[in-house]
Amino acid sequence: MESKGLSRNNRENKAKPKRKEIIEKRKAMDALIKVASAEKDYLSAFPAFRHYQISGLSAFLESGRGDKLYSHVKQFIQNLLKANMEGLYGSEWPAEEKVKRREMVAPEARYVFVRNASNASSVEFLTTSEREKTSASCVEERGPIVGFVHFRFVIEEELPVLYVYELQLEPRVQGKGLGKFLMQLIELIACKNHMGAVVLTVQKANSAALNFYLCKMSLKSYQLFNIKSLVKSVTNHLWSNLGGMFFKLHIMVLYSTDLY
């Protein structure tokens, strides 16, 4: 009886450090998400990404957040989502549109907006803090928005990740390398903020998007139920590298799903 009691105590003592370790890791992940989400201008660390220039297109990028969007920006987002996504969702679009409208203005929503700089004024490269001091009409003088990335910092299957909710571009600026440029910026933002992966979801019916992410961006495709195996291989490396000056691990994961 005594040996059984000692054995049980040993198991309990071993379990306690494990529970404590899990709690500490969760606290560390929550802290990472909080710090990453508090950043006001995600482009400030990457000034080379403020401007994108290619034959036939001159654009500049700026940061934004869901709870501080001008009404005309909200309308642009809604219109572009409808133009690009309604055909894919078909009869399910009205319900999905309501979901996307709520997601659009959520406090945790973060944005990188793309403006057409062809006719922009000399104030086009204002920082986020400078932009907040200007009026909506003054901001619009820097050129119309032609696309955006909506992303968030979240914990996905016990891993802190940058989750890309939307990458939407107007047809006139597609096929010019801008999407790849934006995803490269997203990778850098994820690395700087010590995220374990960049994650996004694409419907299987969206062949153009799948081709972009799998071929041009060389993303690894995982079904949702397989993400845990990825987490297991990444987690130890993640926590062992958090003490470094810059976290270099970046894995991009694609959830390819049916519509419903």
TrEMBL record:
<dbReference type="InterPro" id="IPR039949">
    <property type="entry name" value="NAA40"/>
</dbReference>
<keyword id="KW-0808">Transferase</keyword>
<dbReference type="InterPro" id="IPR000182">
    <property type="entry name" value="GNAT_dom"/>
</dbReference>
<dbReference type="GO" id="GO:0005634">
    <property type="term" value="C:nucleus"/>
</dbReference>
<dbReference type="GO" id="GO:0043998">
    <property type="term" value="F:histone H2A acetyltransferase activity"/>
</dbReference>
<comment type="similarity">
    <text>Belongs to the acetyltransferase family. NAA40 subfamily.</text>
</comment>
<dbReference type="InterPro" id="IPR016181">
    <property type="entry name" value="Acyl_CoA_acyltransferase"/>
</dbReference>
<keyword id="KW-0539">Nucleus</keyword>
<feature type="domain" description="N-acetyltransferase">
    <location>
        <begin position="90"/>
        <end position="260"/>
    </location>
</feature>
<protein>
    <recommendedName>
        <fullName>N-alpha-acetyltransferase 40</fullName>
        <ecNumber>2.3.1.257</ecNumber>
    </recommendedName>
</protein>
<dbReference type="GO" id="GO:0010485">
    <property type="term" value="F:histone H4 acetyltransferase activity"/>
</dbReference>
<keyword id="KW-0963">Cytoplasm</keyword>
<feature type="region of interest" description="Disordered">
    <location>
        <begin position="1"/>
        <end position="21"/>
    </location>
</feature>
<keyword id="KW-0012">Acyltransferase</keyword>
<dbReference type="GO" id="GO:1990189">
    <property type="term" value="F:protein N-terminal-serine acetyltransferase activity"/>
</dbReference>
<dbReference type="Pfam" id="PF00583">
    <property type="entry name" value="Acetyltransf_1"/>
</dbReference>
<dbReference type="GO" id="GO:0005737">
    <property type="term" value="C:cytoplasm"/>
</dbReference>
